[in-house]
Amino acid sequence: MNLNRDPADERFRDEVRAFLRETLPPDMARRNLRDFHPTKADMQDWTRLLHAKGWSAPHWPVEFGGTGWSAQRRHIFEEECLLAGAPPTCTAAFRLVAPVIYTFGDAAQCARYLPAIRSGDAFWAQGFSEPNSGSDLASLRTSARRDGDDYVVNGQKTWTTEAHYADHLFCLVRTDASAKPQRGISFLLIDANAPGVTIRPIVSIDDAHSLNEVFFDDVRVPVANRVGDEGQGWTIAKFLLENERAFSAEVPRNKRLFARLRTIAAQEGLIGDALFAQRMAKLEVELMALECLTLRALSEEGSPAATQWPGGSILHVLGSELQQKIGELMVEALGDQGCVFYPEHSTQSGHAPGVAADFLYRRAATIYGGSNEIQRNLIARSYLRP
């Protein structure tokens, strides 16, 4: 991996910054720089602006609407967007289900679903976790019984991020109860508004609604909405989860959080405090190391080198724990202000709104995408196997 800065990449960074100055609505940026959960309207509006530029799906293959950028340029783009206050696009759609569709799906599925994701006209949510089946996905119980040209789906999903916004759900379901757990699972695309689908809110510790539980009661799903072969769901899930874990390093988000920490420390008069400065420096070193590992993983995409180390799990552990460490130091730096409750998307002035809420929500960062205990087991298995 070559970490020398390419002048062409720096010119590209300038191009992205100019685009953001001209295109990103200031009110949208203000809302998202406070790290409350982004609204659906902001995410879809921003996706449409990116789509008009041809930049909404930078990491997709060119033939499906991607930009053809290098891994380094994708990283630069995401970093500049986050630092400027741009909301994310729909993560479940762009980073999780879309790669599954264009990798394992058929031509009809690609034609039906990918354009609407790319343009921001369709919102998706991921239905994997169930009560008592979180990190142990192979124990999932939601069933899909074949009935002619349909599956009849019954069961429950939980902790489903942004399902209340979703037009579609992608779900792991059990299509063969007699097979070994991993072999009886299939991957279905489900209309979130289909009869029998019920979505109920879960208000999390940050007193916000981004999570949901989803119930399926005799929901009919066309067989044509199955991605891959029946029973191939576990293979597809492993592919998807590796993408999710690599993304959860969230270097751009960690950079923005660290920049906010630096601002708060300066405003609270802590920059000159030797002990506090030392703690900040330690986190900055961790952030630099995380970025190097992320760039390595991106540069090895699709190559044999990517299989030589458990990159997804390592990045998940380091990135999620760093988010928590930075958030903890921000709350500490704020002192009494860090304990104040600010309603979601508060317009109150000052640098405290959103800090405590994001800190509380990110307690889950070491759980979602596969708990860090599970990730450490995967890392150990990779390095210690005979």
What would you say this structure looks like, in words?
Helix content is 47%, strand content 14%. It has helices at residues 7-23, 26-33, 40-53, 71-84, 91-104, 107-119, 233-247, 251-267, 274-299, 311-334, 355-361, 372-384, and strands spanning 124-127, 143-147, 150-157, 168-174, 185-191, 197-203, 209-222, 226-227.
Could you say which overall geometry the principal axes of the C-alpha atoms support? globular
Query: What spatial order of strands do you see in the largest sheet?
Result: 1-4-5-8
Instruction: Please trace the helix and strand order, writing H or E for each element.
Output: HHHHHHEEEEEEEEHHHHHH
**Number of E-type strands:** 8
Compute the CA-based radius of gyration.
21 Å
Share of helical residues: 40-55%
**What proportion of the residues form beta strands (DSSP E)?**
5-15%
Low-confidence stretches: none
Main β-sheet, in a few words?
Answer: 4 strands, mixed
N- and C-termini, Cα separation? 28 Å
Number of helices: 12
Average pLDDT level: 91
Q: In terms of structural class, how would the helical and strand content be classed? A: alpha+beta
